[in-house]
Design goal:
13 helices; alpha+beta; 9% strand; 5-stranded antiparallel beta sheet; 2 domains
């Protein structure tokens, strides 16, 4: 028996039946609540940051939608991050840790907890924003993606990845070769065309976030493990002495400060020049700021040591590390 063209079927039929039983007062109340919800949603949209530039980053065969918001934040869309990580999905049977954190689902697996930094706990919250079209969108801070890659790479190096997560680690390595920790912001600016409207003094403003105006007290910053790994890769005997070959300073500049961020090494050398006696008055890291410079140094050092551990000789180490962490150009602005 064929249904009539205008006959209501399925759930719609049930909804119509329920609506027919409502009193005028009930219908009025439902309509009122609907109007309030619509108004609340409109107010919420108005309060959201708005994309002022949109674009797409191309890394190999990946295309990552991105945007610059009116408050200056660079974001990658949630769908773009999921795609970049191989469409990672939450597994119902997976055990999640109990901490009350606003982590994306793909970082909540219990085996990843030891590899998630406090900074990532803070910065990985989802960002709701409005696109140029006015539609609501979800995203993450652009800087978060390299940090997420580090989580899976570190877990893989430690042998803690689940079989279902190994494809994410493969993606993470591919992505990490495409951008350095700080380079992702520049990629967003390039993809969206935002660099065309950045302030001319943006690089200086960026450097001021990284480098102090006054010298800080000396605190041991470079772990012994860094020097032990350097000596091992160079085939030098380890003595534990704080007196090291002069070339070590050049390696530190090359491996760390020259790759920490655009213009950072040049600004440090300007602030901390070599004296007439052939030495600097302070260590470069004493000029780094507490809120941005030091955390960036710590994260970079963590990745550097991981790369050092994974190789058996200096040549293979530098070959891999230079590809993953290209030097940051002095003219590149990230703000």
């Amino acid at each position: 028996m064929n249904n009539k063209p205008d006959e209501i079927q399925g759930r719609a039929k049930g909804g119509a039946a329920r609506a027919a039983k409502l009193t005028p007062e009930q219908r009025s109340e439902i309509a009122r609540k609907g109007a309030l919800a619509k108004q609340a949603n409109a107010e919420l949209l108005k309060s959201m940051p708005i994309a002022i530039r949109e674009g797409s980053i191309t890394l190999g065969d990946l295309s990552l939608p991105c945007a610059v918001l009116d408050d200056g934040r660079r974001v990658l869309t949630q769908s773009g991050v999921m795609l970049a990580l191989g469409r990672a999905r939450q597994v119902k049977s997976r055990k999640y840790f109990d901490a009350d954190v606003n982590l994306p689902a793909f970082l909540q697996a219990k085996n990843l907890k030891p590899f998630i930094s406090n900074d990532l706990l803070v910065t990985s919250s989802r960002i709701d924003f409005r696109m140029l079209s006015g539609a609501k969108a979800f995203g993450f801070s652009a800087e978060v993606l390299p940090s997420i890659c580090e989580v899976f790479m570190d877990a893989e190096l430690s042998g803690k990845l689940l079989e279902s997560q190994k494809h994410i680690a493969i993606r993470a390595r591919v992505l990490y070769k495409g951008f350095a920790k700080l380079g992702i912001v520049a990629l967003v600016d390039e993809a969206t065309g935002y660099q065309e409207i950045r302030a001319r003094d943006a690089l200086q403003a960026y450097l001021e976030k990284y480098i102090r105006k006054e010298l800080a007290a000396w605190v041991k910053t470079f772990p012994d493990e860094f020097f032990k790994e350097l000596y091992r890769l160079k085939r030098w005997p380890w003595t534990g002495s704080s007196r090291r070959p002069g070339v070590v300073g050049k390696y530190i500049n090359d491996l760390i400060y020259a790759r920490l961020g655009p213009g950072v090494l040049g600004e440090l050398e300007r602030k901390n020049p070599i004296t007439e006696k052939g030495r600097r008055k302070a260590k470069h890291f004493q000029w780094l700021t507490e809120d941005i410079g030091n955390p960036a140094l710590a994260q970079h050092m963590h990745a550097l040591i991981a790369f050092m551990r994974a190789e058996d000789d200096w040549k293979s180490f530098t070959s891999r590390f230079y590809r993953a962490f290209p030097k940051q150009g002095d003219t590149l602005s990230l703000l």
